[in-house]
Amino acid sequence: MAALRTLGRSLLQPGQAVPVGRRGVRALRRSPVRVLPPQKERGQAAEAQRSPREPPPPPPPAVERSSAGPGLWYEKAAPGDRRLGKVVTIAKSKKFRDHHGKVLLEGQRLIKDALEAGAVLQTLFFSTVGHLKELPEAELKRANLVKVKFEDIKSWSDLVTPQGLIGIFSKPDHAKMSYPAAQLTSSLPLLLICDNIRDPGNLGTILRSAAGAGCEKVLLTKGCVDPWEPKVLRAGMGAHFRLPIVASLDWESLPRNLPAGVQVCVADNKDPGAQAETVSVPTGAGRAGSAPGKSRPKAAPEHEDEEGAAGVCIPELPVQHYYENWTQTPVAVVIGGETHGLSAEALHLAASTGGKRLVIPVVPGVDSLNSAIAAAIVLFEGKRQLLRRHKREDERQKFPVV
């Protein structure tokens, strides 16, 4: 090897450069590659090089969890927790509630009623651990429990005196709910149909009256306010979890939710002593509905109003005071909206089932009663008549006439 190097040097003239290929030039220009040890060894080396006075790096952020009892754990919300902002979105946006299938319930009474009825709790925000002791423990174990400051809940709540308890539930399905046994045993063959009830406070009060009167079911037509809106829930005082509420029904599908042989009556303010006459309403009120097994009355144009819309003929219904006997078995009552009253569809449905107009007499000059007040009056009168009818039937069975 030494002899070859000597021979090479002897072949070159003094001052002559050694020829280098292109690959050799590129190799000379390359930066040296640093060979790194495995990750574990790098960590050990960095630990050894760190100054003894330098504190160790902080651990990655973790959720702080605490125990509220055997098998019951909750987490403490960190500042800026995004889940808390969703509470307001769920509460105020019907579109969000429908799209994500979630509703918001506030307060211990309402949340407890929902859990006992079988509603599925997803997330519960609370301010003190004591709130958890008043709720079913088995249901709480299946949910995410998040402890937040009371000041935060107060800023989200619409209540004057918040209780510090807000729950996000899956939107309840009336067919899967377990209603209280006392409500079921007191239920009567009495149904309520809400026709364009748009005021949240009125609808909540109507639902509460329906539960108190022992209604079998409540049907809400399209145009009614969402029953899961916070104001409706507060006014309902737990009625949502005491009887089935079927919402967003059109008049074509509504008869399928009524029992066979039902008679539909409408609450009205028409004077029973006035001469019967046929009235007309704009076609914008909608198409006439039909009852099971009945043909729908045909709409006949009668006149043109100021806007040029053709009118729809409204059938004539027998008129009587609400306190006179009108309860068949079963029976349904329609309560009209605050602004436009009864729709054409409601009157056609009542006519096709042999229903009546039920009038609550008021002092002359008073236009009408509030829809929630009218519903309470008619429903509790219907309850009185049905109970009296049942009592007479029981007496006939005990003491048959020979």
From TrEMBL:
It comes from Nyctiprogne leucopyga. Transmembrane segments: none annotated. The keyword Transferase applies. InterPro entries: Alpha/beta_knot_MTases, MRM3-like_sub_bind, Ribosomal_eL30-like_sf, rRNA_Methyltransferase, SpoU_MeTrfase, SpoU_subst-bd, tRNA_m1G_MTases_N. One of its GO terms (biological process) is methylation. Residues 1-72, 275-308 are annotated as: Disordered. Residues 104-175 form the RNA 2-O ribose methyltransferase substrate binding domain. Residues 23-32 have a biased composition (Basic residues). CDD domains: SpoU-like_RNMTL1. One of its GO terms (cellular component) is cytoplasm. This is MRM3 methyltransferase. Signal peptide: none annotated. Keywords: Methyltransferase, rRNA processing, Transferase. Belongs to the class IV-like SAM-binding methyltransferase superfamily. RNA methyltransferase TrmH family. It comes from the Eukaryota. GO terms for molecular function: RNA binding; RNA methyltransferase activity.
